[in-house]
Amino acid sequence: MGFFDTEEGVSEYLEMAKGHDGRELIEKLSEYLPANSTVLELGMGPGIDLELLSKIFDVTGSDNSSLFIEEFRKVNPETDLMLLDAVTLQTDRRFDCLFSNKVLQHLQRVDLEKSVPRQAGILEERGLLAHSFWYGNKTEELSGLHFQFYEETDLEEIFGNYFDVVLMERFEEMEPGDSIFVILRKK
Prior knowledge:
By secondary structure, the protein is of the alpha/beta class.
């Protein structure tokens, strides 16, 4: 059973994530993606970014934790939600953009590499990815969660066969330059 499959794990995550959202990342994305485009959020968690995305785009939320999906659906029964694994991405639906905020960093690098062609496969022609990661060259385990840190060259190597870099920039979540945001266009 994974961290996000337990009430304790979900509660711990909610406490950890308090005060953080992807507002600045979503504003940056809106410079490259037209309003009302279809966006799939990978790893929606409690749905904070999903609600922000929904003000601009036609969004679908997804998570690999049924607890997050169930909790969000209680308050937002009309929202389009899917139980979805970020590696296999088992869906026949297609989207203009996939968005994740510090979600794919929980995958081992080998699993992120497996996810990339699947991400390309569910995007419309010339679709976009918009993902954020912790910046650096290390891995950490914290409370049973895996954290993979990435530098620019890592991300170019992982995504480069399927995507062109539109934007790659560092930003601050907790400390200056501790995070990296990428917008990538499907080749």
